[in-house]
Amino acid sequence: MTVEVKIGVQYAPRELSVSTEEKPQAVLALLDEALKNDTVFTLTDDKGRTVAVPAARVAYLDFTSDAARKVGFGLAASEAAAATAQ
């Protein structure tokens, strides 16, 4: 299940958005470790791109599941095909 993580950064007008396969608890553990070591918080998305933020500048993390957001023609077509097959 893909999770979208929105990262608020202090003094930045926009948040960063990363889609990842990591569970929220794992992401929080990465941030906790970076804060303890006073290092950079890094998160890799599901396409292999890495976002790096100084851990001390992370204002918040917001987790959203992408599972509920499946919309579009592909979903409707697959549901219609399943309904006609029955």
Give a short overview.
With 86 residues, the protein is of the alpha+beta class. The chain is built from two helices and five strands, in the order E-E-H-E-E-E-H. The strands form two sheets. The protein has a three-stranded antiparallel beta sheet, with no helix packed on it. It has a two-stranded antiparallel ribbon with strand order 3-4.
Structural class: alpha+beta
Q: Kindly estimate the percentage of residues that lie in beta strands according to DSSP.
A: 25-35%
Uncertain spans: none
Give a short account of the largest sheet: 3 strands, antiparallel
Provide the helix percentage. Answer: 25-40%
Assembly annotation: single chain
- Average pLDDT value? 85
Radius of gyration: 17 Å
Envelope shape: globular
Distance between the first and last residues' Cα: 28 Å
Major sheet: arrangement of strands: 2-1-5
H-E order: EEHEEEH
- Find the count of extended strands (DSSP E, 2+ residues): 5
- How large is the count of helical segments? 2
Record keyword descriptors for this entry.
two-stranded antiparallel sheet, 3-stranded antiparallel β-sheet, 86 residues, 2 helices, alpha+beta, globular, 5 strands
Molecular structure report:
There is one protein chain. By secondary structure, this protein is of the alpha+beta class. The chain is 31% helix and 35% strand. The chain has two helices and five strands; from the N terminus they run ββαβββα. The protein has helices at 24-37, 73-85; strands at 3-9, 16-20, 40-44, 50-54, 58-65. A three-stranded antiparallel beta sheet has the order 2-1-5, with no helix packed on it. Strands 3-4 form a two-stranded antiparallel sheet. A hairpin with a 6-residue loop joins strand 1 and strand 2 (16-20). The longest helix is centred in the middle third of the chain and has 14 residues, at 24-37. The radius of gyration is 17 Å and the shape is globular. The chain starts with a strand and ends with a helix.
